[in-house]
Records
---
Amino acid sequence: MARPTVALVDSGGTNIASVSYALERIGADARLTNNPADIRAADRVILPGVGAAGAGMARLREAGLVEVLHEVEQPLLGVCLGMQLLFAHSAEDGGTECLGLLPGRVVPIPPAPGLRVPHMGWNTLTNLHADPLTEGLADGERAYFVHSFAVPVTAHTLQTTEHSGTWSAVVRSGNRWGAQFHPERSARAGARLLTNFILEVSP
Amino acid sequence: MTLARRIIACLDVKDGRVVKGTRFRDHQDMGDITELAARYSAQGVDELVFYDITASPQGRRVDVDWIDRVAREIDIPFCVAGGISSVQDARAVLVAGADKVSVNTPATRRPELVGELAREFGTQCVVVGVDSLRDEDGQWRIRQLTGDPEATRALDTTTLAWVERVQELGAGEIVLNAMGSDGVRQGYDVEQLRAVRQVCGVPLIASGGAGTVQHFIDVFTEADVDGALAAGVFHSGDLTIGDLKGALHRAGVEVRLD
């Protein structure tokens, strides 16, 4: 069987090169695109993203990608801001309507004594529900997080992390997954998650 | 607390090679950028910072070719500093694959730069490097153009006031380079870092003075910094990342172990 093709959505964020190189390192056949036909034709779709929700949604609208992301039936993975954009709403930038592919709202990480915001660095993952995407990522495995807004734990949360509260680290609803951490910069844990997304999750 | 304290290796880049100086002077060649980046990454370092130390004094922007090579090679985060003085400069560096940009001299010249970068890329991408030295009156004050001793200038701004100001403007992380202790391996400037910690609500990275495992234990336990950056002690092989992290773990400091 041919390698699954991956459409890396060109949302204009600045971590696209890093995600693309991470996919190259694991041998995936990834193509950077904002062409709806390419996105519909791919076996897997990844929505990367870094920065703020308002600008992220504005870029997706300008590129005409909102509709196609709603239509995608193959496995879709949002990364960092890309995961947050999958939800209905973000409190960032004075309140931003997002894609609404998963129910729930993105909220600011509250300040707490001795804890810094942004939540930046290598934090531990805790498994709530087993899933093909997180297969091989044991409790206590560390991944690299950088964010000031976060998704509370919901029925869709697969893995959590703790920093001034317990937050969703990995989420899933049907064929839509999201990782709050940066798999492209998370060494072994990140490579494992991306490999699972390419090879293990079933449409 | 489950977030690990970070060990950061700093690679000073000059003319496309990694160099190391003492007290910001007398640079010696340490090797190829991507080779060293891959080696530290394999040893378990949490993050890398590349300082193009001659960019600001020479009035030029950081070169992006090697950033792309590093981004392809490693799977841990890295930050680039040196001569980034506009949104356009930062975009080139981030698009090439860097996770963060660090601004130092250009922010001292035009503080609004910090806010412009934060609005464009998010605060999490914006690191402010602060070169600080204690003056004869006992105050810590910032310096600019520290990549070239001939060009280095002392400013009137106190370090604590500057750290507060850049956070208001949108800095997502502060790297405090204690120039008095840099390169001499007598320990981090814990006194200064504790003072900065009191006014710093974003991640704070200690820089300058690491020589032994105990120096790292001290700076994490006494100054509550989020990360500790070092160069010479790693380049020389006197301390390996693995040994350091094992010792920190045994001392009760939360670190990422492989």
---
Amino acid sequence: MRFLLVCLSLVAALAIAPTAQAESNSEPVDAFSLREMADFSKQIEQELASRGAYVAMVFRTGRQRSQLPGEIRYTHGAFWVYAPVPTLGGGTQYGYAVYNLYHEIDPVTLSGLYQDWPLDFTRGDSVGQVGVIIPNREMQRRILDVIASPYFEALHHPEYSLLSNPADERFQNCTEFMLDVVSSAIWQTASREQIKVNIDAYFRPTRVQLNVFQRFLAPLTDARLRFDDQRDGIRTATFASLADFMLAFDLADEDQIFEIDAPYSRAEDMVYRGGEAAATAVD
Amino acid sequence: MRLLLVSACTFAFSGGAALAQDQQQPANAMEEELSERGVNYARDDSTQDRARNYARDAQRIAQRRESEGEDEDAPLPLGEAVIVDNSRRSGPDN
């Protein structure tokens, strides 16, 4: 009987490993044709450019939503920065450069900062939908200041956890990194220690529901699931909690937080509304 | 029970195996598939210096447009071609 319970627990853990992924790696998923993904990447760029956005926070999901915990809608987020790009042919093309924190392939518990392009971003998308937060003009200026400075790299902490606690310094994932950059821009500091104190005070993370088997056995099957930084449940930063934070402190306008569907989107209708994360966040 | 475990392991490893399949595409194949859209290769490879420079360029454009009295929300010009790296992707799967 005990053996049966252990086996069942293992199965439960194996099942959560893929479903809990809020992953940030650069492995291509290529769920759609290259042409479709290229068109979608350009559709996103056009939407951002039409709104005059120099900086936006864009989120994708590399897995079907049915495979994710209900509280997690996107598995990767990155800054998109408008720039003139010198091309190999000697010209210049205006477009968006994408600033990612990706975990490494080996070891997966470490991450790096990588700048790539919108097509690379949409190639990791599985549902044909992205979430977008365009900060207000003052925040865009401040975020650009951070990205253009050595602070950007100083804010990166290479110890990676898929579901990192944003109020704890020990681990960082892509969304937490974005929150750290936003926090640095707000409070004008590159001290992660200070940023974590402020995040603990002002940011309401999303609470992810894992049962006891998932909590203790999932890390055995996926090294990226590290819960040393979690107490009393799992708290992490998500598109929704970041959007709520931006709205709550007037860092973005409500109409600048939205989702974009590709023509081939498999996603259900938009569900993000202001305050959504607050419903699942920790008080 | 053995069947259950085998199924679980198959499930666990199938995701990894799918990811492990390198889907890198030869550059000319990509250009062919995107011929209508067009492809532009970024001149430099991905480095933090390049990334910082793009951000500084963005700052300069924003300042220039502001000093020229451009409306804050005015649309920004955008190229039609898709920008890629010579090495296709800057992440560790290269």
---
Amino acid sequence: MNKVNIHPAPFNPWREITDFQETNLQGLCNYGATATFVGTMRDFNEGDDVAEMELEHYPAMTEKQLQSIIADAEQRWPLQHVLLSHRVGLIKPADPIVLVSVWSAHRAAAFDACREIMEALKHKAPFWKKENLSSGESRWVASNTPGFSED
Amino acid sequence: MKAVKVLYFASLRELLGKSGDTLPLDVEQTALTIWQTLNPNSSLPESCLIAINQEYAAADSIVNAGDELAFFPPVTGG
């Protein structure tokens, strides 16, 4: 069971996981690991205070790409369920932006698939961020930060 | 005559001052040729991504009448 949500208004990722579990996973005992990533908006970027962010997307392509990213992960790992949600529109600091939740039999697949889905989303899903700074200036975010920490 | 629907997103939409174009197309053309026809004063940015019918494509990919062609900057979601 997979679910993709695009939210034009604020959403609560923790409630969404609970709802997904209660709706779709009742009575199932085939998963032993759940890995979750939640991305939220910071109030700073590149040394500047950010007041809010506008998240634009390409609606017809977004859902197709997200489904394709999940399908790719399912080819690589044995996954029972994937829940993938993303905000669009006007976003305020501390608002959740993205939720990736993966249910699998074992932790290795859950951890690895959760990370890979998030990285693939960062590089393939057609979303764009525009920051409105506290100074009144606006700017498009030009590129992603690295997805892997340096040793 | 059938046409190709062209879309521009994010910083590219602002740079060009338009969110889309419609171009009548009687023979197939590459994505790059269509860009050059529609935007003779702006060269296609090197980092620009291209999609045909919501799937990633290249500048030399073929576009047919009825297709949806999109140009956009590197994606920054998540």
